[in-house]
Amino acid sequence: MNINRLDSTDSDFQLALDKLLAWESVSDDAVFATVNEILRAVKNRGDSALLEYSQRFDGLSATSVAALEMPAERLQQAYRNIPAVERDALEQAAQRIRAYAEHQKLESWEYTEADGTLLGQQISPLDRVGLYVPGGKAAYPSSVLMNAIPAVVAGVAELIMVVPTPQGIVNEMVLAAAHIAGVNRVFTIGGAQAVAALAYGTATVPAVDKIVGPGNIYVATAKRMVFGTVGIDMIAGPSEILVICDGDTDPDWIAMDLFSQAEHDEDAQAILLSPDSEFLDRVEASIRDLIDKMPRQQIIEQSMSDRGALVKVKDLNDAIDVANYIAPEHLELSVDNAQQRAKSIRHAGAIFLGRYTAEALGDYCAGPNHALPTSRTARFSSPLGVYDFQKRSSLIGCSAQGAAELGKIASTLARGEGLVAHACSAEYRIK
Predict the structure, then answer these.
(1) Is 319 exposed, middle or buried (CB count within 10 Å of its CB: 0-12, 13-18, 19+)?
(2) Catalytically annotated residue among 329, 332, 347, 359
(3) Which residues does residue 128 pair with via DSSP β-bridges, in sequence order?
């Protein structure tokens, strides 16, 4: 396995880093054309097209879309039947995610000016949200909890989950997680056709206001294309981890932290920054020693060879600068005084403080959401949270005196823009 080694003091470091970070998320023409056809068919033919695509792509034998809906009793059955240790783990994770989400709720506010004019902001939840969950063999009950619970905490009235079940393969933990999280309806559909159904609605699947949750390139492309008709959470790229370590953490821990993201898929990215070149050597040795024990060895090896790197930096301040440029999805600060160091981080999806905080804890049960910005989008976006399921409406209530004073200002500006009706509307209320 080739392991890339970079040095921030090299003259070509920036060029090498940019090449390493480059990942093209734009769908190719073939994917775009396929998704466009699916979206158009479902929009125009509804259940009929949705059923055809489910039969073609997932090998399902259902004769109606209604037959693809999981009754609530089936979710309860899954919850009861999974092993107690799994049920307890899901419950504990859900409790922590819910507790964290409660702190994120936005509250309405208002204030009244001296003349009696009221100004403020009113917060309200979305009416209906669609949750896409990967299914089949690659199933993620943690994604159900992370995407559904903040919506429920926000007060979303109805949560519609779609999950593909190729060849009828159903993951019981996913269904149990839906029961725990408070999902209202579950349809066993997937792919771009499921996104289309959620966006446009069919006779059976209700249209939603926003679609959240991860999926493959067809799902991501479909979400991008229906944005505007509905809201979406984000277009997520491959998983990423960036570790900053001063050299005093067990190198096996760091190697396994890198593996934890590299094992997602071949495009995942795992990078280590350290000012200690000897420590980088030790981590590389750990990587080579531990890789044979990994069930997903080939995926990790390709990910580490193609997009991973061990980077020598001048010092921890230099590491912080590099980290802010990379703007990683997950950032581990495996250093002393991690909480203080974190104050210098401007761009990261989630920051893991100290040597004992493995990124994997954030993936499952720490509490903060694991739906995070990737591909340097942490420069301008944030983790999924309760606020993504709430809307803000401005409140403006003028008193007679306030209308008279504001009307003069509005009239002047409106006439300056040539919008006479605007000006007259304001002027009518000037005493």
Answers:
(1) buried
(2) 329
(3) 158
| Residue 290 confidence (pLDDT) above 80 | yes
Give the Cα separation of 306 and 319 in Å (integer).
22
Position 419 confidence tier, pLDDT thresholds 50, 70, 90: very high
For residues 160 and 206, what is the distance between their CA atoms, to the nearest angstrom?
Answer: 8
Torsion of CA 21, 25, 26, 30, to 10 degrees: 120
Q: Average pLDDT for residues 123-140, to the nearest whole number?
A: 90
Residue 311 to residue 174: CA distance in whole angstroms = 38
Is residue 55 scored above 80 in pLDDT? Answer: yes
Examine the residue annotation and report whether 329 is marked as an active-site residue of this protein: yes
Q: Taking residues 335-347, what's their average pLDDT? A: 98
Which whole number is the average pLDDT over 23-32? 78
* Distances, alpha carbon 355 to alpha carbons 127, 280, 363, in Å: 42, 16, 17
The pLDDT value recorded for residue 136 is 66
Backbone angles phi, psi at 70, to 5 degrees: -85, 120
Q: How far apart are CA 260 and CA 273, in angstroms?
A: 17
Q: Nearest-CA neighbor of 220 among 102, 94, 134, 324?
A: 134
258 neighbors 304 (Cβ within 8 angstroms) = yes
DSSP per-residue codes, 344-407: T--S-SEEEESTT--HHHHHHTSSS-S----TTGGGT-----GGGGEEEEEEEE--HHHHHHHH
Report the largest interatomic distance among the alpha carbons of the chain, rounded to a whole angstrom: 83
Q: Is 330 a catalytic residue?
A: yes
How far is the C-alpha of 243 from the C-alpha of 12, rounded, in Å? 22
pLDDT of amino acid 139: 82
What is the residue-averaged pLDDT of the chain? 96
Residue whose C-alpha is closest to residue 4's, from 18, 22, 16: 16
| pLDDT at residue 426 tops 70 | yes
DSSP output for 121-174:
EEEEE-SEEEEE---TTS--HHHHHHHHHHHHHHT-SEEEEE---GGG---HHH
- Rounded to whole angstroms, the Cα distance separating 89 from 365 reads 9
Catalytic residue chosen out of the listed positions 330, 332, 347, 370: 330
Domains in the chain with CATH codes = 29-103+126-232 (3.40.50.1980), 237-379 (3.40.50.1980), 398-427 (no CATH)
d(CA 101, CA 319): 31
